[in-house]
Design brief:
The chain contains eight helices and seven strands. The chain is α+β, with helices and mostly antiparallel strands and 212 residues long. It has one domain. The strands form two sheets. It has a five-stranded antiparallel beta sheet with strand order 1-7-2-6-5, with helices on both faces. It starts with a strand and ends with a helix.
């Protein structure tokens, strides 16, 4: 089974891509979304109800995802509901700052972060993307893309589904790692650093403006 992943500069475009995948009959357990939430576009509720990793206290504090260890205990319920977007919830993933996520990639990323903290392999989103079959370069670019304000949509593809899913994501303005990686490297970037400071809202707005 192949994994098709694309980076979106706008979370709105990414949500539209997910909706199109679902409308095309792709099952929810094959789809995943990980989105930067520095600008607080998602406040912890989806479809009029609280996401499984959302704000339990009503005070803006994320009491189950202030660290990857806590998030891992609830990763199994990501994606529950009528559609994958009904399962959106807030997480803390090292190197990315606040993110909104749902689906198998988010659960894997949280588990990888916990494993790395315990002395395991590369953790967080970078480790999850590698585990999903992406090359080291692809995983670094896609992780950096989320850090810079982007949204990842990943879908598991059987056989000839790969080209069909690629067409859907590209049609919604999803970028593969090669084009965006070249742009990052022109500024001196060499790889994703989980220890780097997350981008601020101002930095993210400036970054998004480069690709409009």
């Amino acid at each position: 089974m192949a994994t098709v992943t694309r980076l979106f500069d706008s979370h709105t475009e990414a949500l539209d891509a997910v909706a199109e995948l679902e409308a095309a009959g792709v099952s929810h357990d094959k789809i995943s979304i990980v989105s930067n939430n520095t600008d607080n576009w998602h406040s912890g509720s989806a479809g009029g109800s609280e996401g499984p990793l959302g704000d339990r206290n009503g005070d803006g504090e994320n009491d189950v995802a202030d660290g990857a260890g806590k998030g891992a205990t609830t990763g199994g319920v990501l994606g529950a509901g009528a559609g994958i977007l009904a399962g959106l919830g807030m997480l803390a993933i090292p190197g990315l700052g606040p993110v909104v996520a749902a689906g198998w990639l988010a659960s894997t990323a949280v588990g990888a972060a916990v494993g790395a903290a315990a002395g395991g392999a590369t953790g967080g989103l970078l480790g999850a993307l590698k585990e999903a079959g992406h090359s080291d370069d692809e995983a670094n670019v896609y992780s950096e893309g989320v850090r810079r304000g982007g949204t990842l949509v990943s879908v598991k593809a059987d056989g000839d589904e790969k080209e069909r899913f690629e067409a859907i994501l590209q049609g919604r303005r999803g970028y593969d790692s090669s084009a965006r990686g070249d742009a990052y490297r022109q500024t001196g970037w060499s790889g994703f650093d989980a220890g780097a400071q997350p981008y601020t809202s101002e930095e993210i707005n400036r970054e998004r403006g480069l690709y409009r």
